Amino acid sequence: MSQYLAEEAIEQAAIAWLRELEPYTYQHGSEIKRDLSKAVLEDVFGAFLQRRYPQVPLKVLAELKQEFLYNSGTDLHQRNHAFHLKLSKGISKTWKDDTGRQHFGHFYPIAYDDISQNEFLVVNQFTIIGKSKRIPDLIIFVNGLPLVLFEFKNLFNQDATVEAAYNQVQHYTYQIPQLFEYNALTIVSDGQTTLHGMYSSGLEWFAAWKSIDGREVVGNDFALETLIKGLLVPGRLLQYVRHYIFHEPDKGQLIKKGAKYHQFFGIQYALQETLKSVKPYGDGRIGVVWHTTRSGKSITMAIYTGILRQLPELKNPTIVVQVDRFDLNRQLFDDFVAAKDLVGDVRIANTTDELRSLLSGDSGGVVFSTVQKFNLKDTATGRELEHPVLSTRDNIIVIADECHRTQYGLVQGFANNLRRALPQASFIGFTGTPVDSKDADTVAVFGDIIHTYDIRQATEDKAVVPIYYEPRLAKLHLGNEQLEEEAEEITGGLEEHEKNRILWAAMEDAAGAKERVEAIARDILQHYTSREKSLSGKAMIVCMSRRNCMKLYDALSALEGCPEVAVIMTTNIAKDPVAWNPHVRSKEQMEGIKARFKDPDDPLKLVIVRDMWLTGFDNPAMHTLYVDKVMSGHNLIQAVNRVATVFRDKPSGLIVDYIGIGDKLRDATKKYTSAGGEGKVTFDIEEAYSLTQEVIHLLQEVMPEDFNYITWPALAGSDKIKLVSQATNYVVSEDERCKAFMLNEKKLSSLAPIVKSHASINDIALDLIFFQHVGAAVRKVKYPSTNIKKSQGQIKDLIHRSIESEDVVDVFQMAGIERFDISIINDDFLATAKEQKTGNELKLELLRQIMNDEIKVRSMKNLVKYRKLKEEVERIISDYHNHFFDSLVAMEKLREVARHIQEEDERRNQLGLTEEEEAFYEILAKHPNAVQDFDLIKELVQKILAEVKKSASQPDWYKKDDTKAQLQLAVKKVLRFKVKAELQEILDEVMEQAEARYKEYNMSVA
Fold it and tell me: Exposure pattern of 158-188 as b/e (b: 16+ CB <10 Å)?
């Protein structure tokens, strides 16, 4: 007997754990008498049908049995699909009894509603004869159907891995294909690593089941036990088989997919909250599911939708899937269509009329719509004042994708219209990005977090590949020292937000400077070509503007060896330059180029985008994202996760940063790896609503006597303007009245985002909107702005005159540190993340103060040198704030300045100079046109210092013009005939340094 645990021991452990779960029973394969060429226990299945449907004649049951077990299809995948549809959806059958009476029934091969009527049998060493004789390790039969297959390998044999188990299963599909016609789930395990998946999937799509309850993640040490007790519990297994597996058509082939543990539990908890929250039993706020981008959120939403449609409690519900824009979120619709097995037919509301028609009926279904389709229409009698009610049914569920992006307009706008149209609907949000304090209304609208699956857990589970960050720098060096002052002169008359918008637009424009774009193009091509040598795949480039996208396309295309590249952006032929016409595409053409880019073998390798494809676009073959656009928060994470999708042997995704997003990436990543931090409403909405009512009353008191704006929404445009003008003129006619109005209007505007999700918001919506209009008009009268377009043009011109573009720099080489990659989920990287206002901003400010204090102490000793170093410190901080690089680079640059200061003493000793001599040495050395010989400079410095000390020996010497004149003359004599140029400039600097260093009378000088 072997002293080591063998493969059989793992098999026996699995059997033992399964037998702990009622009503599993066990039998050894050799004990079962049957036809060895068949994988189904046909007698057991027949007995189930008789037990489940005793009222049906035996002849009909025999026919049913044959229909269930015979699967049409030319290949194994088609036959498996055919069986799975029967397994999950059942089959309908009609027959006549002996009297000729017609009967109808719908039949399932499993009693999903009554576990006790099913037989769960665990069988090991089950021999099957197909093209070869094979003996799979372990099979779970449900009613005689072989639904779950285990293949084990020895934990203590180095070569017996899960990869070997998986490979063995792939051989089985050819040798005993009859087993896999009925297979729902395949499990491979070596005792340490246990993975589940679909028999037809690549190993990269197999995954561990890491939770028993969906809340606590269990370590890998208990992987097999966790999978058995977390997934194979009889009730759960049946739910999984029925609702969580589907076949997706792809390029003429069928791809079988199954949910991972985070998807299963996320949906389970969402279903629980749905039944508790739907009206009239709850308040209609189901909650928010946060599953990080690229972890299969679309599939999660599709499975959830499919189950909702079958819930008897919801009585054939209508599911409205709400998205921002189809050009950005087409992928979600495509995923729903691909999951037709689960969700059925999906309809798109292309127009407002289509939407209203689809939602006005009583029939259920799935409707995709943008929130913008809930708009007000122009009718024969004028524009609608409010959105009509489309349905008062309470079995309408609205699913909002990326829910914190689509809830604008709760006071007046699309989201408000949606709630008026469907007053009894319930809402659930799905997001790939976390809900934080800025998204408080997301929680107010949808409810609390239901389930969380963050990027750290997704990476550990290999649901996504790790993402690495490589900072490179295409600098925007502003050479104009008076830039801020000149910019302030131009924008002085504008409000702060308008100033920021204009300055940002100008910086966007500057980022497209010809030299800079060409430098980035060269670097991208070199970087991508080098990367392709070891990892073939696709890459995406993100630019600040559409114009910059075009500039980069032209620069890249002009380079020798550039692969095929395309610009993906929205176009407007009425406004865009004619030169952009080659990049104008119809919807069909856009779909065509998307298919090409997603095809790993297609020669289209690079795409350049501004916004499109940064969300809702999945291309597993894409491995690199080049970023030349400042982004933050969920927009940034959505973008970088484009390269996180698992694909073949892709080890990781890479973010290459040309603009300085490092800090923002760390901030966002910190939030994304918080492992379940739930968003809570941080204010009392009732208290805020009450305060809003008080502020409205105060604003009403400021209005003229008998002033009435109740009919304002129904007025014609010109009459609306007159009413606002009347109120405005009255308010601004008296300073104190105007001051009181503006103070309260500001309070009202700050309260609006808080109360906009209140149930009674429509009672005060008119007041909010009217007073905000008056407020905008009052500000315009009191603080007239300059011509914004003129300012915008002036600022652009100023920025371009100030720009000095330089080559792309490898940041780590520039900082003098060893080259390394930083994963965005790496603890060292996250350690530098800002915690609100106490992170890298504070570190940088402390470094700045330390450096400036040190320079201040030293500056009187060497004015020229330390003035230069102080300017360098301030330039680094300024460049950091202007997004030229992130704080990691800024701190490294400050470290370089500090190192320079620390090395000065050593340098001075090498030159053989005293500290006093060094200051004057720096003056002469910075004028190479005047004097070049080191020994001569040293001789002149010693003579200058002697003259300076002679004059400085007199009290208050620097206040005496004659003493200063004598010193200047003496220094001039020393330098005459020795200095070839710039004599006066050198004299001025010598006098400035002498005064700074020897201002105070010192007896030791005498």
Answer: eebbbebbbebbeebbebbbbbbbbbbbbbb
CB neighbours of residue 337 within 10 Å: 17
Supply 857's token pair: 């102490």
Helix axes 983-997, 915-925, angle to 10 degrees: 160
Phi and psi torsions of 493, nearest 5°: -85, 0
Q: What is the distance between the alpha carbons of residues 339 and 247, in angstroms, rounded to a whole number?
A: 7
Between CA 441 and CA 465 the distance in angstroms is 32
Rounded to an integer, what distance in angstroms lies between the CA atom of residue 427 and that of residue 423? 11
pLDDT along the chain (1006 residues), means of 10: 56 92 94 94 96 94 95 92 96 89 94 95 95 95 98 73 92 96 95 91 91 84 88 96 92 89 95 91 89 86 94 92 68 84 88 89 86 81 81 92 58 73 90 59 75 83 81 57 53 55 64 86 92 88 92 95 93 86 89 92 95 84 90 78 83 83 71 47 62 88 86 76 86 85 82 72 84 82 56 54 53 47 52 45 57 60 61 74 67 70 61 69 70 69 77 71 76 74 77 71 42
- Is the C-alpha dihedral spanning 129, 134, 137, 139 positive or negative? negative
Place of tokens 């103060």: 849
Provide CB contacts within 8 A for 852, sequence distance 6+: 870, 873
Contact indicator for 945, 923 with CB cutoff of 8 Å: no
CA distance 812 to 807: 15
Q: What tokens appear for 738 in the block?
A: 């105007």
DSSP characters for 34-102?
S-TT--S-HHHHHHHHHHH-TTS-HHHHHHHHHHHH----SSHHHHHHHHHHHHHH-EEEEEE-TT--E
Diameter over CA atoms, the chain: 136
- CA distances, 796 to each of 504, 743, 799 (Å): 10, 35, 5
Q: How many Cβ atoms sit within 10 Å of the Cβ of residue 261? A: 24
Q: Which residues pair with 123 in a beta bridge?
A: 27, 139
Q: Are 681 and 444 in contact (CB under 8 A)?
A: yes
Euclidean distance between the first and final Cα of the chain, in Å? 100
Calpha distance 627→635 (Å, rounded): 13
SS (H, E, C) 495-559: CHHHHHHHHHHHHHHHHCCHHHHHHHHHHHHHHHHHHHCCCCCEEEEEECCHHHHHHHHHHHHCC
C-beta neighbour count of 609 within 10 angstroms: 22
Find, among 472, 572, 461, 49, the residue nearest to 223 by Cα.
461
Question: What gap in Å lies between CA 822 and CA 721, rounded to an integer?
Answer: 56
Alpha carbons 379 and 245: distance in angstroms, whole number: 47
The set of residues, in sequence order, having a beta carbon less than 8 Å from that of 29 and lying 6+ positions away, is 123, 124, 125, 126, 127, 135
SS (H, E, C) 667-704: HHHHHHCCCCCCCCCCCCHHHHHHHHHHHHHHHHHHCC
- In angstroms, the CA 416 to CA 422 distance is 10
The position carrying tokens 């999903």 is 112
Q: Compute the distance between CA of residue 12 and CA of residue 30 in angstroms, rounded to an integer.
A: 16
d(CA 766, CA 768): 5
Strand locations in 273-395 (E): 285-291, 318-323, 346-348, 365-370, 378-379, 382-383
Q: Residue 389 carries which DSSP code?
A: P
pLDDT tens-digit map of 345-384 = 899 888 889 989 989 888 889 999 888 888 888 777 777 7
Q: Is 707 left (phi over 0), alpha (psi -120 to 50) or beta?
A: beta
Half-sphere exposure of 758 (CA within 13 A, CB side): 23
